[in-house]
Amino acid sequence: MQLIDGKKISEEIKVEIAEEVKKIKAAHGKIPHLAAILVGNDGGSETYVAHKVKDCEQVGFKSTLVRYPAEVKEAELLGKILEINMDGDIDGLIVQLPLPAHISEQKVIETINPVKDVDGFHPINTGRMVIGLPAYISATPMGILELLTRYNIDITGTYCVIIGRSNIVGRPLSNLLSLKANPGDATVTVCHSRTRNIPEYTRQADILIAAMGKPGFVTADMVKEGAVVIDVGTTRVPATDTKSGYRLKGDVAFNEVAPKCSFITPVPGGVGPMTRIALLKNTLLAAGKKIYS
């Protein structure tokens, strides 16, 4: 069994991005600029955005963080997005999800200019991705593809099973893995909460990706010997032995599943750091006008 170390790979890629930033600055006198909007004070969102700001500093990006209270009116939030859309100095914009119930996430996503949609959630970027055109790919699927590439895991002709059908992970990833590309050319099945007898599918999987947000859902009896297992789950569970009062748990029962795997990602330290790296890579593409030129 080999551990897929997302933290190590993410640090290597940060060095690569920092070098690119130096080149862009030398050639054009401008550095990539990422803006983030945070509504409310959800603990997970606060932590994630703080990491993003720190990541930007480490690679030499400019970053702007706009905060709103949970009670902010939808119209005010949309107005700010339109303002950032028009700001020529800002290359990428993300609005941290989830949002309060009175704000339409879909309306927010569709208000972001696709050219600055470095989260890859806008329908235009999603549509371009589905048919294999250049697009900003949503961060978690992009991070997973990067891990597969960096660890030389060839998925051509393999059978991949994804548990979870969210628009953020499961759906885009299923399209990407089946595209005629590298990595790609896999046969993909998407399981979800209404799938009957999920273990029937997972036991056949050469590549198993768990992204449903249920700690420890995937157990050893659900995994094929020698499978590659990618754990996307990051659920906070109470813990009395940690300073924060919680710990992150993945969707995979790691200790019992790992001995059966050829490769497996840990939680934390697997997919999470790569999600943030993908956001930086998309912002770098946006600054270089590499997608929409």
Give short descriptive properties of this protein.
three-stranded parallel β-sheet; 2 domains; single chain; 293 residues; globular; Rossmann fold; alpha/beta; 17% strand
Shape: globular
Approximately what portion of the residues adopt beta-strand conformation? 15-25%
State the distance separating the first and last CA atoms: 43 Å
The succession of helices and strands, N to C, reads EHEHEHEHHHEHEHEEEEHEH
Biggest sheet descriptor: 6 strands, parallel
CATH architecture of the largest domain: 3-Layer(aba) Sandwich
How does this structure look, described?
Helix content is 39%, strand content 17%. The protein is an alpha/beta fold and 293 residues long. The chain folds into two domains: 29-112, Leucine Dehydrogenase, chain A, domain 1 (Rossmann fold, 3-Layer(aba) Sandwich); 139-272, NAD(P)-binding Rossmann-like Domain (Rossmann fold, 3-Layer(aba) Sandwich), CATH 3.40.50. The chain has a six-stranded parallel sheet with strand order 1-11-8-7-5-6. The chain has a three-stranded parallel sheet with strand order 3-2-4, sandwiched between helices. Helix 2 links the parallel strand 2 (33-39) and strand 3 (62-68). Helix 1 (6-28) packs parallel to helix 10 and helix 6 (139-150) crosses helix 10. The model has no long low-confidence stretch (mean pLDDT 94).
